[in-house]
Amino acid sequence: YAGGDFSASDGTPMDRIARWNGSTWESPGFGFPGTSGEFVHSLVEVDGTLFIAGGFQEVTQNGSALSCGSIVAWDGNSLDLLDGGTDGEVEAVIGWNGGVLIGGDFGQAGGVAAASLALWGGGNSMPETSSSPGLKLYPNPGHGPFTVEVDASDHLDLEVRDALGRLVERVMLDQGSATFGAGLAPGGYVLHGAGRARHFIVVDRARQQDL
Question: In this structure, is residue 63 part of a structural domain?
Answer without folding.
Answer: yes
